[in-house]
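INFO  loader      accepted 1 record
INFO  loader      residues=411
INFO  predictor   begin
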Amino acid sequence: MAQSGYTPILIYASGTASNVPLAANMISGSTGAELALNYADGKLYYKDSGGTVQLLASKAANNPVTTFSGGTTGLTPNTATSGAVTLAGTLASSNGGTGLTTFTAANYALYSTSSSALTAGTLPVAAGGTGLTSLTANYIPYGNGTSAFSNSSTFTFNGTTLSAPAYAATATITGSATSGAYAYGTLSYSDVNIFASSSLSNNNYTQVILQNTNAGTAASADFIVSNNNGTATTYYGDFGITSSGYNTPGQNITNNPNTVYLQAVSSDLAIGTLTSAKNVYVYAGGATSAALTINGTTGIASIPSTTYAPNINLTDAATIAWDTSKGQVATFTFVSSNRTMGAPTNLSNGAFYALAVIQNGGSNTLSWNSVFKWANGTAPTLSTAAGAKDYFVFRSDGTNLYQQGISQAVS
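INFO  predictor   done
INFO  writer      dumping C-alpha cells
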C-alpha cells in the first residue's frame, strides 16, 4: 500500500530467484529507459545501448571485504580500511619467490641450499656449477675431490696442444682394433693388444723420436723391452744411442760417444728374417752395398765376395749326401764299413769346398761320385789307420768339384 501523501513508482519486477529480465521485455532508448528488479535476489538490471541486459546493482555490494592476508607468501598487507590495499615484504621461495632481499655482488647465481631456501653466490659443484670464482686462460677445470673443482698451470689446453704432468690410459686393448690406447691416426689393419699406434699417409718419412739433449758422460737415449723376468738390471733388450760426451765403462757394449747400439741383458740376441728367402744385410761406412749378407735361402753369410759357412757333419749312409747350402766345410766320420760319397747339391760356381774324412776303427774305403775330379784322373786311397784324418779341398764350376789340395794322415 502506498504511503499516504506519496505516489508510488512501479518498475518491471520479478520475485523469482535467479530470474533475469529478457532484453525484449525492456525499453532502452532516447525516449527513456526501463529498469527491472529481482526483489528475491536483490538485483537491479538495465538494458544497455547494445541491447544487452546488464546488472546495475546488487545487494551483495553491501558486504565489503573487511580483512586481507598474505598467507604463506611472506608478504604483509597494509592496515587501510578503505582505498588501495598495498603489500610489502619478500616473496617466499615456497610461493615462487627467492626469499632474498638483496644480492651480494654482480654475477652471483641463485641456487637452493635446502628444500625451502635459496642463496646467491658462486654456483657450487653440488648445484651443477664449478665452485670457481674465476678462470685463467687455457687452464682446464678438474675435479679436486667430490665437491670442488680446481685448475692449475700443469693442466692446460690452448686450442692446439694439451699439456699435463702425466698420462695414464685405461682402455681395454685385448680386442681387435685399428688403434692403440695411445694413438695418432688409424692403422690400415686391425690387431690385438696395441698399447700405442701411429699412422700417417705421407710421401716422405714418418718418425717417432726419442732424444736426450744432455751431453754428459752417462747420458744416452734408450728404448727398452723386458719380459716377465725383467728387472731394472736384468732380462731386457736395449736399443739406444750414447751422448757426445759418453764415457761410462761397463754400461753398454761400446763405451763410445755418439754410438748407436742394440744389446741384450741376461738374454740371447737374435737378429734375422722370419720369411723364407728374405736376406739379412749389414752395411758399414756409408757403403751402397752390404758389407755382410746372409742369404735367406741358403743361410750362407757372404762378406763382400767371399763366402763362408761353418763346418757341418755329414750323416753316415751307404751313399753320403752333402747339401753344400748347409755348409761348404764338411766332415764325414765312418760309422760302418765302406761308403760312397754322393754328388753334392747346391754347388756354386767359383766356390771352394772342404771335406774331412775320418776313419773309425780303420781300413774303410770311400768311393767317389763322378762329379769329383782328381789330379791325373785318379782318386786317392784313404789312410787306413784307426782314427786317420784325410782332408780334401775342391773348387766348383757349379756342376763338378775339382781337386785343389789333399792332406792325408794328418795328426
